[in-house]
Amino acid sequence: MKKPSRKVARIVRPKRKGLEDCVVRDPANRRRALRVQVRAGASAKDRAETQRFVDTLEANKQIARGDGPMPSGATHRVESDARGHQRLVRKRFSAV
């Protein structure tokens, strides 16, 4: 009869890259820019996908603007950071 192995399974987790800001156009006002966090070293293709994602959020009315309670269905909010830049921040999830 074999003895059970005493070796412990080692969990290997990939190293997480930092995040950086990606500047995209605000779908509601094309002259204004929004900052969205993406992984560091994102390619041009990733940045274009980020712009499409923000456009899709706006088309589905999932971006809340201004103060006060978030409207029904909104998952993201435009907030000002410490430097005064407009930043898109996820506040809650939607299971649609």
Write down the overall mean pLDDT.
88
How would you describe the shape? elongated
* Tally of individual domains: 1
Low-confidence stretches: none
Number of helical elements:
1
Give a verbal description of the structure:
Strand 4 and strand 5 (about 85-90) form a beta hairpin. The protein is built from one helix and five strands. The longest helix has 16 residues, at about 45-60. The protein is about 15% helix and about 25% strand. The model has no long low-confidence stretch (mean pLDDT about 90). It is elongated, with a radius of gyration of 20 Å. The N and C termini lie far apart (about 55 Å). By secondary structure, the chain is an alpha+beta fold. It has one domain. It has one helix at about 45-60; strands spanning about 20-25, 35-40, 65, 75-80, 85-90. The protein has a three-stranded mixed β-sheet, with no helix packed on it.
Core attributes:
96 residues, alpha+beta, three-stranded mixed β-sheet, single chain
What does the secondary structure layout of this molecule look like, with pairings?
Elements: E1 19-25, E2 33-39, H1 44-59, E3 63-64, E4 76-80, E5 86-90
Parallel strand pairs: 3-4
Antiparallel strand pairs: 1-2, 4-5
